[in-house]
# Entry
Amino acid sequence: MSFWEYLAGRRAQLLADGWQHASAVFQCMVVATVLGVVIGVLTYRSEWAGNLAVTTTATLLTIPSLALLGLLIPLTGLGVAPTVTALVLYGLLPIVRNAVVGLRGVDPSLVDAAKGIGMSRAARLVRIELPLAWPPILTGIRVATQMLMGIAAVAAYASGPGLGNEIFRGVSSLGSANALNQVLAGTLGIIVLALLFDAAYVLIGRLTVPRGIRG
# Structure
């Protein structure tokens, strides 16, 4: 069976796996973005706190994905729970780091001017600092999403959803008629999803980042 024949015969299953893969990454990125920005907001004013946040999330990223899933399975069981937990933890570093860097890079004179006209600290954060820090934060989200696209495939080890199941089925049956087709279909599917997500982030950047800031 050729690769194109395999795709035609397994189209429904591949589309379902692709949807689950994209949905898992998207939902985990929403959670990771909220947590990462909150951590950045809470720590960027302090040198040691910001460095601690970045170092901690960087340390999490050094844990091999299979090892982390293996540690999570006894605590959360198989399926969605360990997948979501692992992806959120892995997605934090680029967002936390870029949030801290972006917020620290805001021109202090703008913050002082806002303070001088009576803006509260919360108002300055929401109306001045976060909008100006948004470009690097968006870059962090973009990088984290590309990372999670690949890492999510490993979640099949914990019976997680997504195209990783196609890859694992192919790897576990190497030598069989469709093993290579399964690995290739899962891999290409992840690449296509990564490109689609990246294109969406480019569009979001054009819509949300003022042209002057984009340079």
The CA atoms of residues 172 and 179 lie 8 Å apart. The chain has a mean pLDDT of 90. DSSP finds ten helices and no strands in the chain.
